[in-house]
Specification:
The chain is an alpha/beta fold. It has 2 domains: 6-28 and 244-436, Alpha-beta prism (UDP-n-acetylglucosamine1-carboxyvinyl-transferase, Chain); 32-241, Alpha-beta prism (UDP-n-acetylglucosamine1-carboxyvinyl-transferase, Chain), CATH 3.65.10. It is built from 14 helices and 24 strands. The protein has helices spanning 32-41, 58-69, 95-100, 108-115, 134-142, 175-185, 201-213, 246-258, 274-283, 320-327, 347-352, 383-395, 405-409, 415-421, and strands at 10-17, 22-27, 47-52, 73-77, 80-85, 92-93, 117-121, 146-150, 153-157, 167-169, 191-195, 216-218, 224-228, 239-241, 260-266, 286-290, 293-297, 307-308, 332-337, 357-361, 364-369, 377-379, 399-403, 426-432. The strands form 6 sheets. A 4-stranded mixed β-sheet has the order 22-23-1-24. A hairpin with a 2-residue loop joins β16 and β17. α1 (32-41) packs parallel to α7 (201-213) and α6 runs parallel beside α7. The longest helix is centred in the middle third of the chain and has 13 residues, at 201-213. The radius of gyration is 22 Å and the shape is elongated. The two termini are 24 Å apart. Ligand EPZ binds next to α1, α5, α6 and α12.
């Protein structure tokens, strides 16, 4: 007796046909991890800030929702976002919006700088394990802010005369904390020194836009950033083009090493990928660079290389899952050390399903290769793990289903589209979640 057909819940997924040979060209978007902060920086001044080359991805939509909740009018014209800020901008962000995007915590700095007050719901946990914001708060306190917790919300209050410049040595070169402090300091009275600052290209991009707005910043991209405060009314809206997404670019470059290539990735500054490209070359892939583009291809067998993730200019944690997939196809034993997010290795259980030979030892993973992978049903455990599992599906035998496409779409405007343009076969599907994961034939 067939069971009554009930409409079981479907899950969004990417279906990936294996044994793909990829070659061709990809043009990356503006960097997700810059655009989100540039949107927050628009809060610093009234008028219309224009951001060009903003990726059309879920995280950007979530940050736009935060700005709109604050009273900002945001409209998209192609890849340009026009952010119109009036006098009546609010200073509170609700829990449901912050839960969607923990990065929205970076509105704290600009709201404090402009209004002297901000109430931001505490960001929840995330797929990458514990992600504190203690360094953000400690730094803002160093600028004179009073921080209190009220009903799961962070309430920050500047002194009556506004924030006051201070020196703050970050115990860890936190990207988000550097950005929050940078935006808070632009109007703090005096000169602020941020020590052990994050040096990511996205920090340089944010500082560039703030300088164009009238802020006085030196040292962005180095471990010491100095900010000379200016009156908030001296800041003005600008048009800014978002820096190319080095993580999106690194993902496609890795795909070129994995699936033959040559794959040329345009729209990225190769100097933002120095170590990831050096690692690809160390495995034996052929890597060529030119201004604004990188080309990667695989002309011989790959060999295992060790890698350890670190803040920029170290190897980026956001490209660790993709390199780990490549290392499953390299001859030998590679040690992958994850120093930034303890939740990154949650992907390994999913990568074992198609047959990868992986051993976890604390924050090290031993990858033994080459192993022949076969199609399986796997779960994206976070944005970058999801993209990496799609890459694994491209090289596996048979069909791979990566559940949780929405994870991946948080950071990749059109991963299936670009991979198909390169010769792959990747499509978005709905899968019946009643089917036990891993049962895919
Ligand atoms: C940014 O996250 C990026 N996200 C991440 O990209 C990226 O992996 C990370 O920087 C490192 O490069 C955005 O820019 C939106 P951190 P962020 O502050 O700012 C600890 C992706 O996939 N920490 O440098 O949160 C924290 O727990 C995402 O695009 C504290 O303990 O990174 C983590 O272990 C994933 N207290 C480490 O530092 C704090 O106050 C790195 O955090 C702040 C951070």
């Amino acid at each position: 007796m067939p069971s009554p057909s009930v409409s079981s819940p479907m899950m969004d997924a990417f279906e990936v046909r294996g044994r793909a040979t990829l070659s061709g060209e990809v043009v990356v978007s503006g960097a997700k991890n810059s655009a989100l902060k540039l949107l927050a920086a628009a809060l610093l001044t009234e008028g219309t800030t224009r951001l060009e080359r903003v990726p059309d991805i879920a995280d950007v939509a979530a940050m736009v929702a935060v700005l709109e909740h604050l009273g900002v009018t945001v409209d998209r014209d192609g890849d340009t976002l026009n952010c119109s800020v009036g006098p009546g901008v609010g200073d509170e962000t609700p829990p449901h919006l912050v839960r969607q995007l923990r990065a929205s915590i970076v509105v704290l700095g600009p709201l404090l700088a402009r209004h002297g007050r901000a109430r931001v719901a505490q960001p929840g946990g995330c797929d990458l394990g514990n992600r504190g914001i203690d360094l953000h708060l400690q730094g803002l306190q160093q600028l004179g802010a009073t921080i209190t917790l009220e009903d799961e919300a962070i309430v920050a209050q500047a002194p009556p005369g506004g924030l006051v410049a201070g020196d703050f040595e970050l115990p860890y070169a936190s990207v988000g904390a550097t950005e929050n402090l940078l935006m808070a300091a632009v109007c703090a009275r005096g000169t602020t020194v941020i020590g052990n600052a994050a040096r990511e290209p996205e920090i340089v991009d944010l500082a560039g836009m703030l300088q164009a707005m009238g802020a006085r910043i030196t040292g962005a991209g180095t471990e010491e950033i100095r900010v000379e405060g200016v009156p908030v009314e001296d800041l003005r809206p600008v048009t800014h083009r978002v820096v190319g997404d080095r993580i999106e670019a690194g993902t496609y470059a890795t795909a070129g090493a994995l699936c033959g290539g040559p794959v040329t990735v345009r729209g990225v500054d190769p100097s933002h990928l120095r170590l990831p490209l050096a690692k690809l070359a160390e495995t034996g892939a052929e890597v060529d660079t030119e201004p604004g583009a990188v080309t990667v291809q695989r002309t011989r067998g790959l060999r295992a290389v060790d890698v350890a993730t670190l803040p920029f200019p170290g190897f980026p944690t956001d490209l660790q899952p993709q390199l780990t997939v490549l290392l499953t196809q390299a001859g030998g034993v590679a040690m992958v050390t994850e120093n930034v997010f303890d939740g990154r290795f949650r992907m390994l259980d999913e990568l074992r399903k198609p047959g990868a030979d992986l051993e976890l030892q604390g924050h090290h993973a031993l990858v033994r290769g080459p192993s022949s992978l076969r199609g399986a049903t796997v779960q994206a455990t976070d944005l970058r793990a999801g993209a990496a599992l799609v890459l694994a599906g491209l090289v596996a035998d048979g069909v791979t289903v990566v559940c949780g496409a929405s994870h991946i779409e948080r950071g990749y405007a059109d991963l299936p589209g670009w991979l198909c343009a390169l010769g792959g076969d990747v499509r978005r599907v709905g899968v019946d979640v009643a089917v036990p994961v891993g049962a895919h034939t």
